[in-house]
Amino acid sequence: MSEIAAGQWRTVLDEAHAALRTIVEGVPADAWERPTPCELWNVTQVLQHATGDQLAFAAAISGGPGPAEDPFAPSGRIDGDKIAGLRAALDASARAWNGVADDDPAVPTPLPQGKLPAEVGAVACALDAAVHAWDIAVATDQPSPLSADLARPLLVAARQIVEPLRAYGAYAPAIDPAAESDEVAVLLSYLGRDPRWPGVQL
What we know:
single chain, mainly alpha, Four Helix Bundle (Hemerythrin (Met), subunit A), MDMPI_metal-binding, TIGR03086 family metal-binding protein
């Protein structure tokens, strides 16, 4: 698959948002401080980062409020309901993207690349949600939310946006996938994540 089909990005984004919401809602009460594949961050910090990124996409498109704190310096402290902020951020992101035409050639994004075609920007937004859903899932002993069908379009977008982002620390250097790697493992490896992160069974 070399391109993302017109309108396909809506399904990809919906699936990624649902994956992140479901995984976060499944975090055990005693697991919020567990380490994650994001080396310097625990589960709460990954949640804060993912929440902030969705708000940043929504704000770029709609002009509404962005994240209250730097998504790349999450405090690790959430007062009250840990999930409420994510739900609000996902709703804001979904509303913003709902107002974008399928074939809009220049949608504002918070990425250094600036405006991107709708199918690239939306799947970049989905990529962020989906990969952090995976981070939290494997850190909290939940099943991976990534499927081959979801990984394919995510990898298409990743190969268009990720390289410049590595310089900002948004993604680690890519690692070589094992010869027998499936599409999910190839995606994770490209994003600098070990698909066999401690305890993960492929």
